[in-house]
């Protein structure tokens, strides 16, 4: 039996996390999802658990999603990181790519999530 | 004509906002699963007291919505505005009907903030991309109150000359209307001038 895909969701908005969770569960894969509302919570989880993918908001209190990605990579270098944000500026997308992150613009569609989860 | 921007520049601002709001409307349409109808953006250059009169004429008395501050080559605040009595209905449309009334109510502020975050960022990011500049946006803040309170939130500098860009939108299948307003502080308009001139020069070619 295939192992469940372990996913970390990081977004200060509970509604944004609910929306992503709903879409991920519709992807047809066995998943285990953990949530963090800010960078500190996310780092605590990354220190304790191994994840396959982390979906991270950009605009959060404290540190932004790209700064958080840089800290996560020191702990779990192989974790696939995705920046999920409505801030679709070219400059942000370029910085995300330089940090080795994939990029998804909000609102995320089911098709985009399917591709991401099943890749 | 505005004394601050030339006719060409003002026309460019309207067109850029049109493109930005078009992107935001597409995002909203995806979230509410309904067609979003947009007005042509209206750009006014006003003092704070004039802005209050304008808001009084245009908007319902009790308002709810989200504001988001931004800075970079332009600075100011953007607002997503709805009639307050329709706010819960909008939240229900976005989060779906499976949740109970108390859950919907509990998620109201968070949903409005995320909705504002998506719409306002879509618009501002599009503007920054088109002008090849960068804008930093703050965290969205949900609010409710009357025009006066909203203007106090939007304009913290009483002497500001502001550029008010106002767009009305509505959902085709539901009788729900909202407004987007961008208050741009023109005391630091130089960067905006340069960005607009470069954009126009690119369009017109050598």
From TrEMBL, chain A:
<keyword id="KW-0597">Phosphoprotein</keyword>
<dbReference type="InterPro" id="IPR050595">
    <property type="entry name" value="Bact_response_regulator"/>
</dbReference>
<feature type="modified residue" description="4-aspartylphosphate">
    <location>
        <position position="57"/>
    </location>
</feature>
<dbReference type="GO" id="GO:0000160">
    <property type="term" value="P:phosphorelay signal transduction system"/>
</dbReference>
<protein>
    <submittedName>
        <fullName>Response regulator receiver domain-containing protein</fullName>
    </submittedName>
</protein>
<dbReference type="InterPro" id="IPR001789">
    <property type="entry name" value="Sig_transdc_resp-reg_receiver"/>
</dbReference>
<dbReference type="Pfam" id="PF00072">
    <property type="entry name" value="Response_reg"/>
</dbReference>
<keyword id="KW-0902">Two-component regulatory system</keyword>
<dbReference type="InterPro" id="IPR011006">
    <property type="entry name" value="CheY-like_superfamily"/>
</dbReference>
<feature type="domain" description="Response regulatory">
    <location>
        <begin position="6"/>
        <end position="119"/>
    </location>
</feature>
Automatic annotation (TrEMBL), chain B:
<dbReference type="InterPro" id="IPR050992">
    <property type="entry name" value="CheZ_family_phosphatases"/>
</dbReference>
<dbReference type="InterPro" id="IPR007597">
    <property type="entry name" value="CheC"/>
</dbReference>
<keyword id="KW-0378">Hydrolase</keyword>
<dbReference type="GO" id="GO:0016787">
    <property type="term" value="F:hydrolase activity"/>
</dbReference>
<protein>
    <submittedName>
        <fullName>Chemotaxis protein CheC</fullName>
    </submittedName>
</protein>
<dbReference type="InterPro" id="IPR028976">
    <property type="entry name" value="CheC-like_sf"/>
</dbReference>
<feature type="domain" description="CheC-like protein">
    <location>
        <begin position="13"/>
        <end position="43"/>
    </location>
</feature>
<keyword id="KW-0145">Chemotaxis</keyword>
<dbReference type="GO" id="GO:0006935">
    <property type="term" value="P:chemotaxis"/>
</dbReference>
<dbReference type="Pfam" id="PF04509">
    <property type="entry name" value="CheC"/>
</dbReference>
